Structures are given as structure tokens and as C-alpha cells.
């Protein structure tokens, strides 16, 4: 109940901020009297939030499909030998800063959201795949033996036993990846993608601290909301809750 109340409060705070920012010119004039234009007006903050969420959701969804799929494959007998090179490859991918990935992909596919999607998806693969591997490894052996004793096929065991028991750990990895992506997605505006990073980038290039604040506040609140959503989802999927 407390978790749900906190989530609702955070979501309401984000909504209130988005409604208040376009009307906050007097406040920022007072805080930054030296600025001629202290309020970012080039784009609507609600519109930027939707674009920001879309980039995070698409990149996170692609990373989840690839990461969980790779974890499932390497946890089966046919793919178990490929787990060490997979983890090495993911660690190498994680070591590349998103800015470096953006710089490499822009000359190949141009400016816009596409380079950001690739960079964020690569950056999300490691936490999601590791969480999926850990979750599948944490399934008790006696639960698997019981499923075999009931005559379940490997596919039935996967969908009815392994994935439900591993779900809380997998969701924890998704939670980590999504929260990181929300902050990192602000960098996507450096290559032409429309996100909540636009006021930040414009503010930094124009030495306008007010714009930076106006972009950073909704990014921070959005990260809090998404973090609480995945935390609530992980608790809801915990088997003890339904016992």
C-alpha cells in the first residue's frame, strides 16, 4: 500500500511539474534576472516527455528481447558453452560510453532517434542479460524435479516454472536498465533526437542554467516514477506474495 501511494505521489508530482513549467517564467526570471529568456519555449515539455519515453521503451524492449533470449539460450544444454563468450561480449559492449556509440553510428545512419536507440539498447543488454541468467540459475532444483515428475515437457517447465520463479530477478535487471536509460537518453538530443535532454543541451551550449534545470527536473522525476513502477512490479511477481 505504501509503495503504491509513493508511486501515485511521484506520478502526480511529475504531472504537476509538466503543467507548471510552461507557466513558470516569472519564477525563473526572479531566479535568473541576468537571462533574457529564462524559460525554454522551443518544445512542449509534455511532448518531449512522450518522445523520451518512446526512445527508452523501444530501446529497452529490444534489449529485453535480445538479453532474455540470449540468457534462455545459454541456460539450455545446447547453448551452455556459449555463456562465457556472451558475458565477455556484453562486458565489452557495456564498456563503450553511449556518447562513443552515438559518435560511431551517426556517420553510418545519420542524425535522429536511430543512433540513440542503438546506443541505449547496447547499454541495456548487460544488466538485463545478467539478471535473466541469475534469475534462471536461482530456480530451485526441487521445483524442477517436481515439474519433471509431473510429466512436464521442457517448454512447459520453462513457461510454468522457470520464468515465473525467475521473474522478480529479471524485473530487477529491467528496472536497473530502464532507470539508467532514462538519464542516458538525454544525451540523444546531441544527435538530433527529441527528448527531455533538449533543454539541457540548449542550456549548456548557451550558458543558460535555467534551461538545464527545466530539463533535468522532469528527467529526475521520470526516473523515480519508472523505478517505483518496476519495484512494485517485482514485488507483485514475487512468489511469496501469492502464497
From TrEMBL:
Membrane-spanning segments: 48-73, 99-126, 165-188, 200-226
Keywords from the named record: Membrane, Transmembrane, Transmembrane helix, Transport
Stretches assigned to the ABC transmembrane type-1 domain: 49-230
Entry membrane topology: Multi-pass membrane protein
Major location category of this protein: membrane
Recorded superkingdom: Bacteria
Coiled coil: none
Subcellular location: Cell membrane
InterPro entries named among the record's database cross-references: ABC_transp_perm/SBD, MetI-like, MetI-like_sf
Xref: Pfam families: BPD_transp_1
Protein family according to the UniProt entry: Belongs to the binding-protein-dependent transport system permease family.
Name recorded for this polypeptide: ABC transporter permease
